[in-house]
């Protein structure tokens, strides 16, 4: 079984992040799989909804920090080449743009952790359904990072004041 499970039930497509041991942290396989799924859904007139969810009691812990650190350690682009970390970050931003532009309703079903990049998924969703124990955070700042890829979508969803407060503090909050 892969890190992203796709299932079709009538007119609904379910995309399940399937890395429960890592709280469904985003890796290249998940991002690439969702990217390809968005390309298919953009031309599929029979699909009415995309449901994003996580396996094992967590929605998504954001980006996989171990994969990100490995990219940083391996990153040594030659002059004129793009940095692999930049490419990875841009790819996630492009994924959010694709999700945001889908003709289908995008629904996030949130249980457990919804940190970092998961907040981007929620921000581009038409509907977010949170279980009672769901926890949310723009956690990038606790790692010394800026939530740049998700920022515009979060601001649009919750306003500049709230987005700034959450981005600056990394505060966790419930549904």
Structure in words:
The chain has a five-stranded mixed beta sheet, covered by helices on one side. It is of the alpha/beta class and 175 residues long. The chain has one domain: 2-enoyl-CoA Hydratase, Chain A, domain 1 (Alpha-Beta Complex), CATH 3.90.226. The chain is globular. It has six helices and eight strands. The protein has helices at residues 28-41, 65-74, 84-101, 117-123, 151-158, 160-169; strands spanning 4-9, 12-17, 49-54, 105-110, 113-115, 127-130, 135-137, 173-174. The mean pLDDT is 92. It is 38% helix and 21% strand.
Query: How many strand units?
Result: 8
Strand residue content: 15-25%
**Considering DSSP H and I runs of 4 or more, what fraction of the residues is helical?**
25-40%
- The order of strands across the largest sheet is 1-2-3-4-6
User: CATH top level?
Assistant: Alpha Beta
Secondary structure class reads alpha/beta
Secondary structure tally, helices: 6
| Count of structural domains | 1
Low-confidence stretches: none
Radius of gyration based on Cα positions: 16 Å
- The succession of helices and strands, N to C, reads EEHEHHEEHEEHHE
């Amino acid at each position: 079984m892969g890190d992203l499970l796709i299932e079709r039930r009538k007119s609904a497509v379910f995309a399940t992040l399937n890395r429960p041991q890592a709280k469904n942290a985003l890796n290249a396989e998940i991002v690439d799989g969702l990217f390809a799924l968005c390309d298919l859904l953009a031309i599929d007139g029979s699909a009415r909804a995309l449901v994003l969810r996580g396996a094992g009691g967590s929605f998504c812990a954001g980006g996989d920090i171990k994969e990100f650190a490995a990219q940083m350690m391996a990153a040594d682009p030659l002059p004129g080449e793009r940095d692999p970390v930049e490419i990875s970050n841009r790819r996630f931003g492009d994924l959010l743009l694709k999700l945001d532009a889908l003709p289908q309703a995008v629904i996030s079903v949130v249980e457990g952790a919804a940190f970092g990049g998961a907040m981007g998924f929620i921000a581009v969703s038409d509907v977010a359904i949170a279980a009672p124990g769901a926890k949310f955070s723009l956690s990038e700042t606790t790692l010394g990072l800026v939530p740049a890829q998700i920022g515009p979508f979060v601001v649009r969803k919750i306003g500049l004041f709230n987005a700034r407060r959450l981005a600056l503090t990394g505060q966790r909050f419930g549904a």
